[in-house]
Amino acid sequence: MIHVADAVRDGFKKISITTVDTDVIVIAISVFKDTEAEEIWLAFATGKHFHYIPIHDIEQSLVLFNLGFYQYSKPLQVATLYLHLQDEERKQHGYMECFPRETIVIIIIMATAQPSCDICLNLHVTKSACVWCSECEEAICEDCVQRHRIQKATKNHKTILIEDYQQLPISILNIKLECGDHNQKLDFYCSNHNEPCCTRCVSENHKDCRDLKPLPEVVEGVKSSAAFSDLEDRVKDLSQVIGQTIQEKLNIKSELEVQRNSIISEVEGARKAINIHLDKIQDELLNNLTTNEAQQRDNIDRLIGKLSKMQNSVNEIVYAVEKTKQHASNFQTFLGVNKWIIEIENHESEWKSAQSDQSMATVHLQMRRC
Q: How far apart are the C-alpha atoms of 142 and 159, rounded to whole Å?
């Protein structure tokens, strides 16, 4: 059911499963809800017993038992309980339509670990089969196999153990011995059309075919034929070649991982080297910036000191002029004015000199590229 879950995750809601194993039916019913599929169909059995089983309908029918008296968890228990219900009681609860008696028989069959005898089932008896007859397309129990071996119509039929039958591939199990169009035994093989055919097929569709042979004659010794031997060799060789190709691709995939890790290491190394270089450039730029800022601060501080000294001297003259105007005589004022004019002229010259100095200009810090 893992494949079913994967299919649902990929967007498929209606799933079909081909099987001859009754355990698959039990498992499918028990986990149907968990798969989140809308419908699950089982293509079950082979030959004339082949049919489709709607797992979703069976599971829904089992759920209906929860409305009243259903307290069982195993399909076989449910089936046993259902078969013991009276028809009227089944109709009253609505189970006749949604959970038919044939479905219950299927559930009882699927709850067993081994396929049941088809002959006994026709007599409404359930017995485990031990062999499979490919010509009758029936599973047979130990009791029935004895009669099968002595009856005139079936004594020459070859049987195989049921365990060996269950190991056959589905494509082989689905091959029918009866004509699908006329329900007659396939007796001939047409090499022109590469198909088996019954007597009616011959008369209706193969009148002009010249290469018609009895089917037993065609299939006789097929397992020891050169074609079958060649097929075995080709299949084994192809399987080996495919296996080698898969291993090569797996090796390439592993090498991709190695190459990826190598490139990642190179990229990380390059990034580390770039980071180291950038850190070095950053340190040099910041050191130059710090030096430049300190130098500009020193220039501004020297100029401010010079201007502050000049301002103090000028302020002293301002104070002297004010007091002289208020209290000094004209003679004192006359002599003082000549002295102060000379001093002011000197200060004006100093200020103009400072004004023309670049240190007076607006300062901009600039980053010098390394």
A: 12
